[in-house]
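Researcher: I'm preparing a figure for a lab meeting and need a structural model of a single chain. I don't have an experimental structure, so a prediction will have to do for now. The sequence is pasted below. Please return the structure as tokens so I can convert it later.
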Amino acid sequence: MNDIRRIVPDKQVLMPSYGLAIEEHFLKNLDGQYIMIWGSESSVVVGKHQNALAEVDFPYVYKNNIPVIRRLSGGGTVFHGPGNINFSFILEGKPGTLVDFKKYTQPVISFLNSLGLPAVFEGKNDIRIRGLKVSGNAEHVYRNRVLHHGTLLYDADLKTLNASINARHGRYNDKGVKSVRSRVANVASFLGNAPGLNTFRKMLISYLEDHFNAGPALRLSEADLRTIKDLIDKKYSRWEWNYGYSPDYTFSGSAGGVEGEPSLELSVKRGVIESARIGGKSLAPEWHKLSGELEGGAHCPERIMELLKRHGISRGDSASIDKKLLPLFF
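Model: Understood. Here is the structure written out token by token.
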């Protein structure tokens, strides 16, 4: 398998949109087989067929500036962060045999086993150690190749992870793919004398290069970088892909503690609010005007913030929605 090469990004820790754009570029625009090991800044990455807003605690990720990015592949939501190691395999195969989670997670499982860890493949697409999930995986088939990618929790901030993907059940109703939440753990917690993240990453890279008999490492060319930037600008950084691609949904929200305690019901299609109804006791007239103006626009914080300020409802700073009102709209 020496036709396989390791992609070397220009940075160890990437913007999440950057890593996902590299994957798509090499999968769809270039021939050959590749592996890539990369790190990511904090982000939530949702599956292609999920309702992004329903999979996260949006007020939390919004207030903490944690981006939510949609990937090419299906499956459930995962958290990326500085304590994660992400692995991507772009490999050729025969039609009908390309989707094989057990096969493509085995190299990572074998690496963990070589460290004395009882890692196993469990569930639909997890790597677990003693019943605790340390890796979530997903796949996307394109022509005669498969993109298999996964996260590996090494020394991740599990508090931020759990808070970010703490879906607020009962507020969204949709037919999107739902994540199956599992108890998670860091690989480092199972190692008696755990190496640092960078050392562990180098160990993983060395193991996978040997496993795949990889050829010389491949650095991104100027042409690669232009195409990747274009993918980021036109897709992975855009609300239309990350949120607007979600399946149609209805939303019910409330804002206790706000005068009149307004409640909101939305019907949203392709990210655009088709109908909105605001209720509550003794609501000021501006709330009823807002209801009509919500319709026909995106269910996104920037637009809603603009409307709230226009009607004098929100007096928060110019860059954010008043935190008391976030639960009403998301």
